[in-house]
Amino acid sequence: MRCHNRGGLSRLNRVNIRSKQVAAAILALTGLYVGIWAVGWPHQFYDSFPGLGRHWVLALGPYNEHLVRDVGGLYLAMAVVTGWAVARRSADVFAMVGVGWLVFNVLHFAYHVRHLGMYDAADKVGNVVSQVAVIVLAAALLAPGRVSRETRLRTG
Known about the structure:
Blueprint: H1 11-40, H2 42-48, E1 50-51, E2 54-55, H3 65-88, H4 91-113, H5 121-140, H6 149-155
Helix pairs in contact: 1-2, 1-3, 1-4, 1-5, 2-3, 3-4, 4-5
């Protein structure tokens, strides 16, 4: 059974690239959500993030417009680069974007996990789950491609 298409990618590799596109698209949408809100309406972002009646940023200290806009700019930059990766569909580009999201979010998570005391149980869970989800999606962009049985037989 032949598992290659005219473009040279095996069906298994196309599935893997498709999965990375989905993970990257979710990350890009996350970046747009946070970035547009923080840059466009920094005080509302400070008062109301992540939405739905929760107040995660407000609980962390006094409002700083410069800091909120900088965070928004970071998220927008990550969204743009991640959107570019979705369009390029290259394992190398996905890996680079994944590294960027991981560096930022592992450090982000490390801070927040040490500062959960001011939140109620639902907000603690929401903080941890949302940040771990971003880390998992970023790590998925680094996952090696699946190797077809045909390739394993040739190289092994």
